[in-house]
Amino acid sequence: MTDPTANTSLPVDQPALDGTAGVASADLPALLEALLLVAPQPPTIDELARGAGVDPAEIEDALSRLQERHGRGWVLQRHGDTVQFATAPRFAAQVRRFLNLDREARLSGAALETLAIVAYQQPVTRAEIEAVRGVDCAGVLATLHARGLIEQIGRLPTVGNPIQYGTTPDFLRHFGLGSLAELPSLGEVGGRDARGALEAAVAAAALEQPASS
Description:
9 helices, ScpB_csome_segregation, three-stranded antiparallel beta sheet, WH_DNA-bd_sf, alpha+beta, 213 residues, Arc Repressor Mutant, subunit A, two-stranded antiparallel ribbon, globular, cell division, 7 strands
């Protein structure tokens, strides 16, 4: 006689529906879309893993699969260990018009130059930036900070513990970048490698700052 209780459990390959089990691998990218859409702040990989009930390595794999999907109106942006959605750069004009941002103030040449130094050489202090630019940068840094493009990410362990600056997720959104790894090459300036010249100037400025005791 057949046991009437024999088939009451879910099949091995069918996930439980009580909301506590991990999601199937094929559905993980879609789940990440849902989590990223409702997240009040850009979540970390570990937070996404806890929410999805899977290992962080599985989150990384699912994010890679998401990034392979072309033709979407969004892009994935990575800032440190956090992840977020941003609008696709090709729709920037329409998004600005929709949000009434057509008259958004443009960055000045000085601001762009300073922002480039921060982006390529972060973490970097005001003194290091000024050593490269040769002018006072207090006002420009204040402007970039007010616009949410840079932020304090630490302090240098020297006398006075000067603030070290880095870029923000808004910086990535502003320039349509998925991560800092997508920053273009600096190329050459005056026949010299611009990245090497920048690193040398910042290093020289750092040597001029006496270490704290």
